[in-house]
Amino acid sequence: MNKSEFVDLVKQVGEYETKKEAEKAISAFVAAIEKALSKKDGSVELVGFGKFETVLQKGKEGTVPGTNKKYKTKDKFVPKFKAGKGLKDAVAAAKK
């Protein structure tokens, strides 16, 4: 599903009158998640849906194929989502 199809779905499910209103709601949700996760120890837990959080991803070492040149990436924080029981159950029921 692409963004346009998702906006149509949100318009229908959320009973918005226009696609613009639905897109505004999606943008507000995404902006709120981004703002919450960019705080130190930021996480957002939506009971029954899931948890958005940031985790530290350790730097990695590797070699460039062909040149055997070594490189190392730095540690960084990355977003992570863990689905809740309600979402897992809904997906499992829909896929049967």
Automatic annotation (TrEMBL):
Pfam families assigned: Bac_DNA_binding
Keywords on record: DNA condensation, DNA-binding
GO terms for biological process, alphabetical: chromosome condensation
Protein's UniProt keywords contain Transmembrane helix: no
This protein's GO CC annotations: cytosol
Keyword DNA-binding: yes
GO MF annotation, one: structural constituent of chromatin
TM region positions: none
PANTHER family linked: DNA-BINDING PROTEIN HU, DNA-BINDING PROTEIN HU-BETA
Protein family: Belongs to the bacterial histone-like protein family.
The protein's name: DNA-binding protein HU
